[in-house]
Amino acid sequence: MKSAKEYISEHKDRFLNELVELLKIPSISADSKYKDEVIKTSEVIKKSLEKAGCDHVEICETPGYPIVYGEKIIDKNLPTVLVYGHYDVQPPDPINLWDSPPFEPVIKKTELHPEGAIFARGSCDDKGQMYMHVKAMEFMTATNQLPCNVKFMIEGEEEVGSVNLAWYVERNQEKLANDVILISDTGMIANNIPSITTGLRGLSYVEVEVTGPNRDLHSGLYGGAVANPINVLAKMIASLHDENNHITVKGFYDKVEELTKAEREKMGEAPFNLEKYKKALDIDAVYGEKGYTTNERNSIRPTLDVNGIWGGYIGEGAKTVIASQAFAKISMRLVPHQDWKEITQLFKTHFESLAPAGVTVKVTPHHGGQGYVTPIDNIAYKAAEKAYESTFGKTPIPQRSGGSIPIVSLFEKELKSKTILMGFGLDSDAIHSPNEHFGVWNYLKGIETIPQFFHHFTQMSK
Ligand code: BES
Ligand code: MN
Ligand code: MN
Question: Residue limits of the Peptidase M20 dimerisation domain (predicted)?
Answer without folding.
Answer: 199-357
